[in-house]
Amino acid sequence: GAVQSVKTAVPVKFDSVPDQGGSSYFGGSMTKAKQVVNPELSKKVAVVFRCANGISDDIANMPFKQYERSNENTVAVKPDAVLHNQAYLLEIAPNRWMTPFILKKTSMLWLLFWGNALIWMPPPPAPRELFILPTNMTTPKMDGNGNLWYEVRFPNGEKKLIPAVEVTHIMINSTNGIWGRSILEYARETVGLRLGMAETQSNLQGQGLNPSAYIQVNATLDARGRQNYRDAYNEIMSGSENAGNLVVFDNKISKFEPITMKPNDAQFLEQINATDLEIANFFKYPAYKLNMGKQSYESNE
């Protein structure tokens, strides 16, 4: 209501902030490894999942408190269950659904995967509560006087303009100080490479670690005929339980030649470890927390 009255009293034009970044690649563009990378798909990579959860858990476990200065003394503000002051929102219940841990952890996940965490406190007469605004549904905008607003599309489809003074905005990798950029925007190709490696491993495992091959047939085949031979080979060799099986064809096959490439020849393990370390570097996450690299109790401590 307060936002609507401001819009009615001051009819101004709202322009989107240029160079927002951080969301353009979430539409589904392909990486060079032929993989689509977005926040949810990237979580299928164990290192990404571990880094994001490790960082967000560490922040969420930190005790946030409110302090005030009185006569040059700094004292902690006590939570007030009646007034729902800032101390109560930070330490007891930020809103009617979330615990402080969930609010902090969820905000950090938005920050890491989208570059921005937006926490909104609606103005009176609404109850004092802290809500997380979905970054992927929010667009920063400027009015004619240079004031910053956030246009938010809520789950019911309604759009609202929220003034920046009502929002606590945490951002990373910003290029304009108004909107941040996700870590995935920079690590996109690396995460895509790791997704491609996992897909390759799955395909090899699904074939029982059997190599690809080419077959020469004493016949002229159309597309349907070539597919029939391909299906016959896959039926015999697919699945790990068929690894090492003997392939038997009729006399129409003049040549069968496997295309040999073993996973260890392709150095899959070394590539995977190197890529995982590179992803951890993007998140600034130490390798020992991923159970990687040299493990030493003293250095880890």
CA-based gyration radius: 28 Å
Helix-strand pattern:
HEHHEEHHEEEEEEHEHEHH
The best one-word shape is: elongated
Counting DSSP H or I runs of 4 or more residues, the number of helices is: 9
Distance between the termini: 53 Å
Question: Notable features of this structure?
Answer:
301 residues; single chain; three-stranded antiparallel β-sheet; 17% strand; alpha+beta; four-stranded antiparallel β-sheet
Structure description:
- The protein has 301 residues and is of the alpha+beta class.
- Helices cover 35% and strands 17% of the residues.
- It has nine helices and eleven strands.
- Helix 3 (46-60) packs across helix 5 and helix 6 (183-206) runs antiparallel to helix 8 (268-282).
- It is elongated, with a radius of gyration of 28 Å.
- The relative contact order is 0.14.
- Mean pLDDT is 79; it is low at 1-11.
SSE topology sketch:
Layout: H1 2-9, E1 15-16, H2 39-42, H3 46-60, E2 67-70, E3 73-76, H4 86-91, H5 100-114, E4 116-120, E5 131-133, E6 138-142, E7 148-153, E8 159-163, E9 167-171, H6 183-206, E10 212-217, H7 223-237, E11 253-259, H8 268-282, H9 297-300
Antiparallel strand pairs: 1-6, 2-3, 4-5, 4-9, 6-7, 7-8, 10-11
